[in-house]
């Protein structure tokens, strides 16, 4: 065959080769989508929008912007977010926070009225009969250890701080049963001093949102604190914890009813159907009573319901 004929034949075969390559091309991978914004919240689906899936290459600037946007969105959903323990003063708050370990705030709120009625001051609780305190705290679980802690911290307050709860982190963590988490709850909500409360809900959500991969609470606190202005820390804690309790649950997150679904890398881990997701909502989002017997007026004005006292219903 002549040289020119070879070239001509090659040209004629080219379209067929191209066509075959097109046929073998893999199908496009399906992209998970979430409601555009949960004003679709619970009522119905909004136009679909691709979910944010940060890669390991997400820049620091992009992470900060996404984290702060999530916090702004949650602030709109929970403008009345507050500590969910009933308290009238720093002493009641530090005791209630110690009691809340490994139980719900609701159970603590149902239990502390009897405790504070009988022992209203650190001096009273420091001098209490442990067996009598144990009987009151029995519904909270681990009541013997908790009795030892609250009596011990009351004695420390009397002996070392003149019966007053100190307003410094380094002093609070010296009290029996008080760690950094408890100290920041007290500082942020009794003294107005910013702090990040790294409880189980906070840890779960910040990892789901890929704000940090840390698992140690102190390292999580440092990593998240670096993403936000210090003035935001206390409210941020409330927003994240409230969202974890009401919508972004550990086992069955209500993804289809989530207001920040378009910003969540973990969208789709839970129920995405809006109607089915609505049935997973807890507390006021699901029409149920909240955790406080005496919630702030702003919460009640927003439609929140106070919790029932111990033994009711």
Secondary structure topology:
Elements: H1 3-24, E1 33-35, E2 48-50, H2 60-77, H3 90-99, H4 105-118, H5 122-126, H6 130-137, H7 143-161, H8 169-172, H9 180-190, H10 200-208, H11 217-225, H12 233-246, H13 274-278, H14 297-301
Antiparallel strand pairs: 1-2
Helix pairs in contact: 3-4, 3-9, 6-7, 10-12
Q: Quick summary of this structure?
A:
The chain is mainly α and 313 residues long.
What distance separates the N and C termini?
97 Å
* Strand percent estimate: under 5%
Classify the secondary structure makeup into a structural class: mainly alpha
The radius of gyration computed from the alpha-carbon positions, rounded to a whole number of angstroms, is: 27 Å
Low-confidence stretches: 1-31, 38-50
Widest sheet, order of strands: 1-2
Strand count: 2
> What helical percentage do the residues reach?
40-55%
Overall mean confidence score, pLDDT: 87
Number of helices, where a helix is a run of at least 4 consecutive DSSP H or I residues: 14
Tell me the series of helices and strands, N- to C-terminal: HEEHHHHHHHHHHHHH
Descriptors:
313 residues; mainly alpha; two-stranded antiparallel ribbon; 14 helices; 2 strands; 49% helix; globular; disordered N terminus
